[in-house]
Write a structure and sequence with these properties.
The chain is α/β, with parallel strands linked by helices. It is built from ten helices and nine strands. Strands 1, 2, 3, 4, 5, 6, 7, 8 and 9 form a nine-stranded mixed β-sheet that branches. The structure holds zinc ion (ZN) (2 copies).
Length: 283
C-alpha cells in the first residue's frame, strides 16, 4: 500500500514548510504520493518536483477559493481542489493571478485597519511571516501572536481576524461552476474540498449540481469531518458516481494536523488521475 495524501499546503500559500521541506517531511513520514494544493497558487510546484525522491509522485494542484450560490440566501464560500491542470492555460492562469492578488490586497487592507486602530502590527511584519508566499489570514494571525496582541493563532481567528471583526475584509471568490469549467478547460480534474467543515455548508443538491457540471470527486476523509459526515458524503458520492478522496490538509505548524492524517485509497486515486496521468510529476 502506497500512502497517498492529496491536500497539502506549503509556504507558497499558508503552510509553514517550504516545498522542499514538505517533500522531505512527506518522505520521512512514508507518504509517497502528495497533492500540493496551495490556495490559489502554483508557485510551489517546481521546487517540490525538484525535491522528489525516487519512487515519489507529486500531484500538482491548487485549492481554489470559490462560492456556491444556493436558491435562497447569500453565496456560500467553499473550496475546490483542482489537480493536474495546465498551469499556463491562459483563462485559468488569469483568474488565479487575480484571485491571488485579491487575497494579498485584502490581507493588506486588514493590516492597515489594525494599524490605524493602534495595534502593534505592520504589513512588513506580516510579509516577513509569509516568507514570500501568498499572504493569508494565518500569516496575520502569527504576526498578531508575535506582537503579543493575542496568545495563539486560534485566538486571532476567534478575534481580530474573524469574519465578524471590524478589521475583516472579504475577498472575491470564483463562482464554483465557473471554476469547474476553467479547470476542466485547462485539462484538470476537480474535487470538492471538505464539504462538511464547520460553517455554512453547501447542501446535497449543490453537490448534485456540481457533479452534473463535471466535478469528479469529494474529499470524504478529512480531519474536520466526523464519522457521520464521512458516511453521509460517501453515500452521496456512491449515488452520483463520484470518486472519494482522503487528505490531511496539512499546513505545517499553522494547524495541528499531521501529514498523512487521512489518505486516499489507491484505486480511487487511479480513477481520479486516469484521464490526466501524463501530468503526474515523478522524480
Ligand atoms: Zn480548504
Ligand atoms: Zn486546504
Amino acid at each position: 500500500l502506497v500512502p497517498i495524501d492529496l491536500h497539502i499546503h506549503s509556504t507558497a500559500s499558508d503552510g509553514t514548510d517550504d516545498p522542499v521541506a514538505l517533500v522531505e517531511h512527506a518522505h520521512a513520514a512514508g507518504i509517497d504520493t502528495i497533492g500540493l494544493t496551495d490556495h490559489d497558487a502554483t508557485g510551489g510546484w517546481a521546487a517540490a518536483t525538484a525535491a522528489l525522491r525516487p519512487g515519489m509522485t507529486l500531484v500538482p494542484g491548487a485549492e481554489l477559493s470559490c462560492e456556491y450560490q444556493p436558491a435562497d440566501g447569500p453565496a456560500i464560500p467553499m473550496h475546490l481542489l483542482a489537480y493536474l491542470f495546465d498551469p499556463d492555460e491562459p483563462r485559468l492562469r488569469e483568474r488565479m493571478d487575480s484571485l491571488c492578488s485579491a487575497r494579498v490586497g485584502r490581507a493588506e487592507q486588514m493590516v492597515d485597519r489594525m494599524e490605524a486602530d493602534g495595534l502593534p502590527i505592520t504589513w512588513g511584519d506580516v510579509r516577513s511571516v509569509a516568507a514570500g508566499g501568498t499572504v493569508g489570514r494565518p500569516h496575520i494571525a502569527r504576526a498578531l501572536v508575535s506582537a503579543g496582541v493575542v496568545d495563539s493563532v486560534d485566538a486571532a481567528f476567534a478575534g481580530p481576524i474573524n469574519s465578524r471583526s471590524p478589521y475583516y475584509v472579504g475577498k472575491p471568490d470564483i463562482p464554483v461552476f465557473e471554476a469547474i469549467d476553467l479547470v476542466r478547460g485547462a485539462g484538470g480534474v476537480c474535487v470538492f474540498a471538505h464539504p462538511l467543515r464547520r460553517g455554512r455548508q453547501v447542501d446535497d443538491h449543490g453537490i448534485v449540481r456540481m457533479a452534473a457540471a463535471g466535478l469528479r470527486g469529494i474529499e470524504v476523509d478529512h480531519p474536520d469531518h466526523d464519522a457521520a459526515a464521512r458516511i453521509h458524503l460517501a453515500a452521496i458520492a456512491g449515488d452520483l458516481g463520484l470518486i472519494t478522496t482522503g487528505s490531511s490538509d496539512y499546513h505545517g505548524t499553522n494547524k495541528r494536523t499531521r501529514i498523512g492524517a487521512c489518505t486516499t485509497d489507491p484505486d480511487a486515486f487511479a480513477a481520479l488521475v486516469d484521464p490526466v496521468r501524463g501530468r503526474l510529476l515523478v522524480a
